[in-house]
Design brief:
This protein has six helices and six strands; from the N terminus they run H-H-E-E-H-E-E-E-H-H-E-H. The chain is globular. The protein is an alpha+beta fold. A hairpin with a 6-residue loop joins strand 3 and strand 4. Helix content is about 45%, strand content about 20%. About 25% of the residues are buried. The protein has one domain: Beta Polymerase, domain 2.
């Protein structure tokens, strides 16, 4: 008998699904609640990137362009160390504070483009050169940009208060 890499029971499979995409037993999907949760995760990731000195932070609403995910969060960092810090802090915020689970991570060791996959939300952290080269905002130009100016202003105001 050979061992299979496939999960052996439903519990194993459900552990692979992020919290934002999971339903409780007997729960009927509520599209509005699911989208609100996805937006909450995206804004939390954007806020965390700003708190860690990420730049050019953008949240794109991709619901009309893709059935695979709802939002992209894009941010730029100035160094490998900063990109790692932003990535780790976003993980902490989304996993520990908001009780969601990351499905995957790509590019962490190279640190030119780190991708954090939370199912309905995908976070892209770039260095300057890689962000310009791939230009995801242009690639997804039909997407609606979510207004996060109030969120970024609040982070900036808090930074100013902390420096005083």
């Amino acid at each position: 008998m050979t061992e299979s890499s496939e999960p052996t029971d439903a519990t194993d499979i459900s552990d692979m699904i992020p919290e934002s995409d999971r339903l409780r037993r007997g729960e009927v999907p509520n599209e509005e609640a699911r989208i609100a949760r996805s937006l909450e995760l995206a804004k939390a990731a954007a806020r965390t990137a700003a708190e860690n000195n990420g730049r050019d932070i953008v949240v794109l609403d991709l619901r009309l362009q893709s059935s695979m995910f709802d939002f992209f969060v894009l941010a730029t960092g100035s160094s490998r160390r900063q990109l790692h810090a932003i990535s780790e802090e976003i993980d902490h915020t989304l996993e520990d504070d908001l009780e969601d689970r990351r499905i995957g991570i790509e590019g962490y060791s190279e640190s030119r483009w780190i991708l954090l996959d939370y199912g309905s939300v995908v976070i892209h952290l770039f260095d300057d050169e890689t962000r310009e080269y791939y230009s995801l905002e242009s690639l997804w130009a039909d997407a609606t940009q979510v207004d996060i100016s109030d969120l970024l202003s609040a982070v900036a105001a808090e930074d100013i208060r902390n420096q005083s």
